[in-house]
Amino acid sequence: MSKKSTKLFLLGAAALGAYNFYKGKGVFNKTRFKEQHKAVADYLENHFPNSTYSEITPTEEGWSCVVNTYPGHFVLYMTKTPDGVFVFWEKEI
Fold first, then answer.
1. What is the CA angle 45-47-53, rounded to 5?
2. Can you give the pTM of this predicted structure?
3. 3-class secondary structure, 59
């Protein structure tokens, strides 16, 4: 590989990494939505132990993720009140 194509590859990789960091995708999801991950983990520990959840995505009024638990899956929506309390609701898929 020539130096020019190596530089272009590295520039593209850096741009992709910056975009993923900005959007909170992949490994950067827990960094961008740290507070929301903590709230979801606490909620699931109390209501659905041993469940897993997807990346957190922003919505118009808050955030959401898909929860995998026995016996099925559901979408977990959450918002944050002005005094800093997370409010959750579930929707079966």
1. 60
2. 0.75
3. coil
